[in-house]
From TrEMBL:
PANTHER family associated with the record: ANTHRANILATE PHOSPHORIBOSYLTRANSFERASE (PTHR43285), TRANSFERASE (PTHR43285:SF4)
Signal peptide: none
A Gene Ontology cellular-component term: cytosol
Taxonomic lineage of the native organism: unclassified sequences, metagenomes, ecological metagenomes
GO terms assigned for molecular function: anthranilate phosphoribosyltransferase activity
Protein name: Glycosyl transferase family 3 N-terminal domain-containing protein
InterPro entries tied to this protein: Anthranilate_Pribosyl_Tfrase, Glycosyl_Trfase_fam3_N_dom, Glycosyl_Trfase_fam3_N_dom_sf, Nuc_phospho_transferase
Keywords for this protein: Glycosyltransferase, Transferase
Pfam families per UniProt: Glycos_trans_3N (PF02885)
Annotated Glycosyl transferase family 3 N-terminal domain residues: 9-72
GO terms of biological process kind: L-tryptophan biosynthetic process
Gene3D superfamilies xref list: Nucleoside phosphorylase/phosphoribosyltransferase catalytic domain, Transferase, Pyrimidine Nucleoside Phosphorylase, Chain C
Length: 196
């Protein structure tokens, strides 16, 4: 089945209302999300896919399929450290408090725990204060490449880094305008923090 036929079939099954919507298989979720990330699916169908999954409530299998697709498009690099603390707070940020976890990486690195923190500038539904905003306000370079971030983490005198989604998964970052039009939280808000 070609991608257009598959997304048509998926949307028919997941967008039929709260009582009639059907779950999709892990592989179908992976193929659909991969097609969205590679630009094979138009913006309208991509938005319907994301909204319909949310409205029917995503299953673990669907979340896994989406995550597997995102990982295919992510610049994953092996970091030469024994352990790595990965801090991935909600990328939509905080509106009611300051995300204190943004201040943890230098402290943890000083204690001998290499740390990676990741995020993006702003995304729906909260458009809140993000790790990027805080690091930027502190004068920290928030536009390091994945390789530059890796080098900072491996450097025992530094031991931590922030890496932005536009560096490690550009196709996902390119969906931010669409996600902002969707307004509501989607499966991407759930799984994107797992791939930094």
């Amino acid at each position: 089945m070609n991608t257009q036929n598959l997304i048509h079939s998926i949307i028919q099954r997941i967008a039929t209302g709260p009582e009639l919507s059907k779950n999709i298989e892990t592989e179908e979720a992976k193929v659909a999300m991969s097609a969205i990330l590679s630009g094979e699916i138009d913006e309208v169908q991509a938005a319907i896919f994301l909204i319909a999954l949310r409205m029917k409530r995503e299953t673990m299998e669907e979340n896994i399929g989406i995550l597997e697709a995102l990982l295919k498009f992510t610049d994953c690099q092996k970091i030469d450290v024994d352990n790595l603390v990965d801090i991935g707070d909600p990328y939509s940020g905080y509106n009611r408090s300051i995300p204190i976890s943004a201040f943890l990486p230098p402290l943890l690195a000083e204690l001998g725990l290499p740390t990676l923190i990741h995020g993006l500038d702003s995304v729906s539904p909260k458009y809140g204060l993000t790790h990027r905003h805080i690091n930027q306000a502190l004068g920290i370079n928030v536009d390091l490449s994945v390789s530059e971030s890796k080098a900072r983490i491996e450097d025992s005198d530094i031991g931590w880094s922030y890496v932005d989604q536009n560096q490690y998964c550009k196709p996902l970052h390119d969906l931010v305008p669409l996600r902002n039009k969707v307004i509501k939280r989607t499966v991407l808000n759930t799984v994107e923090t797992l791939i930094g």
